[in-house]
Design brief:
By secondary structure, the chain is an alpha+beta fold. The chain has 3 helices and 5 strands, in the order H-E-E-E-H-H-E-E. Helix content is about 40%, strand content about 35%.
Length: about 120
Amino acid sequence: MTLRHRRRAWRAGRLSERLAVWLLRLKGYRIEAVNWRCRQGEIDIIARRNGVLVFVEVKHRAALADAAAALGPLQRRRIAAAAAVYLARRQAGHEFTTGGTRFDVILVARGYRLQHIMDAWRADG
């Protein structure tokens, strides 16, 4: 992969994340953080709606099926570990205890077609 190709992919990924943020806002979500990082991993978007804290992974590929396949078990475990750190750091304020947590995926395909998959996986499974 050339440097030019990597830069183009990085820009497309960032644009996809911005579009995902707007999609969530239009659906009534409140954005808590974008690109939140810790030692355990990174979470693309952390949002809240109706008392539920949602950890969102954004995947951009040429086709929606390719984007869905790009989220493997190792990455899901890293996201879940990062989510546990986020919750531990924020739990002191008891801000997120009302409706639980959820892991979603927003798939982005060529032409910036978006698909929001709610409750895409469980941290314990």
